[in-house]
Amino acid sequence: LGNSLLSIIQKENDELVNSNLLCYFLANDTLFWNDFTNQVLKIKNISTVNVTPKITRESIGNIDIYIETEKHIIVIENKIKSVISGNKESGYSQLGKYVEIAEKENTSNKTLHFYILRPNYNNEDYHMFKNGERYMEIKYSEILEIIKDRNSNHYFEELKQVVKKHSSEYN
């Protein structure tokens, strides 16, 4: 990672830190929000113009990133150096739990979207878990594609560096 702050403090593999950094730019950088929802999440019908997403971190049922807009609920499970927690025999896992929570929270019939964000080097098969098929996989390299040529403030450079690290095919 070079001399980034996250590498110096040895937090570039910290899921919580990475999720917080990602959420900061989703909430505060309109261009990033638009590119992320359209190109990475592939939600084409989301109104992103003048939309301020409501982003909740770890407080709605421990969902890593919970995003709510006027017509959509987006659940993102960020997996860096961890695996899906649950019981492979019964199939019950955090993925199934998060689907149940989002469905319960969805009192106004919004469109639900479920994603697993993970480094390119993480290839765990999450389809064996209950509701695993409802999750679309997104890799850090997809985020890198939308930000690699952007220049912004120092903190955005931190995001670029950590996303680049997790875009590698090898840890």
Structural description of this entry:
With 171 residues, the chain is of the alpha/beta class. The chain has 6 helices and 5 strands. Strands 1-2-3-4-5 form a 5-stranded mixed β-sheet, with helices on both faces. α2 crosses α3. It is globular, with a radius of gyration of 16 Å. The mean pLDDT is 88.
Quickly describe the structure.
With 171 residues, the chain is of the alpha/beta class.
SSE order in H/E notation? HHHEEEHEEHH
Distance between the termini: 12 Å
Unreliable parts: none
Biggest sheet strand order reads 1-2-3-4-5
Determine the structural class based on helices, strands and strand pairing. alpha/beta
On the 0 to 100 scale, the average pLDDT is: 88
Largest sheet: 5 strands, mixed
List the helices and strands and how they pair.
Elements: H1 5-8, H2 15-28, H3 30-40, E1 54-56, E2 65-68, E3 72-78, H4 94-105, E4 111-118, E5 135-139, H5 140-147, H6 154-166
Parallel strand pairs: 3-4, 4-5
Antiparallel strand pairs: 1-2, 2-3
Helix pairs in contact: 2-3, 3-5, 5-6
Key attributes of the depicted protein:
single chain; 171 residues; alpha/beta; five-stranded mixed beta sheet; 6 helices; 5 strands; globular
